[in-house]
Write a structure and sequence with these properties.
Elements (H helix, E strand, L loop, with lengths): L5 E5 L4 H12 L3 E6 L2 H13 L3 E6 L5 H15 L4 E4 L16 H27 L6 E5 L6 H6 L3 H4 L6 H19 L5 E5 L17 H12 L10 E3 L2 E2 L3
Parallel strand pairs: 1-2, 1-4, 2-3, 4-5, 5-6, 6-7
Antiparallel strand pairs: 7-8
The chain binds NADP nicotinamide-adenine-dinucleotide phosphate.
NADP nicotinamide-adenine-dinucleotide phosphate (NAP) binds next to helix 1 and helix 4.
Length: about 240
Amino acid sequence: MSEKKIALVTGANKGIGYEIAAGLGALGWSVGVGARDARRREASVEKLRAAGVDAFGVPLDVTDEASVAAAARLVDERAGRLDALVNNAGVTGDMPQNPTGDGVVETVRTAVETNVIGVIRVTNAMLPLLRRSASPRIVNMSSGVGSLARQVASDDPATTGPLSVAYAPSKTFLNAVTIQYAKELRGTNIKINLACPGFVATDLNGFRGVRTPEQGAATAIRLATLPDDGPTGGFFEDAGVVPW
Ligand code: NAP
């Protein structure tokens, strides 16, 4: 079994996920680059390796049961355990997302399938591997727009994002699901937390974000490498705790 810490980052072929993989790699971790597109996945693995990271490709579509099961087998065969799972893969669904707009039912379904059910599917498939780690960590990538406290406090899109009947509530749902995992896993050595990356310039928002992907990766990296006395069941951004 490898002495290096082993991480799997979903959606690691670009954006924030790529920088989470790069950051953990720079700390000496072996990093599985979970990505559904073979060409983009291999390009990212090559780029990470060129930067000195011990990266390996993990074919992974979080919406596909067989793909997720195969990813767990691959990590098992390669490393025999998992020290950190970063559930970063996410989609917004088609925009605009005003609640009375055309096609919103399908858009909600798409966002929930990836951002919530995908996280549950991947987490449950990886839990046997995480349980073999001395200090297992799970990080779920949420968003400040998933904070109900922030949504009800303001109508200003600059604070809460545009009207979003699919994406923002899917992150609220993810937050609620994460609390349930934290409750079930309390008393084990597994820590599970939510990260908010801030507004980051990536494909997800047409590169309108104001932070770099590297900045957006920082909180997730911190939560993936928490010490044993660190928190669990929390929601964090760079500045501290995000209100629920
Ligand atoms: P991004 O550049 O669009 O990256 C999203 C990643 O998720 C891509 O690698 C994408 O793969 C992957 N993905 C989507 N669906 C997938 C699936 N079914 N299976 C596997 N991978 C899948 O966006 P990002 O901004 O880095 O987003 C990363 C995370 O941060 C997301 O959870 C997002 O909601 C969250 N977030 C972002 C911001 C922001 O301002 N950017 C703010 C708050 C939260 P493909 O290349 O194959 O599409």
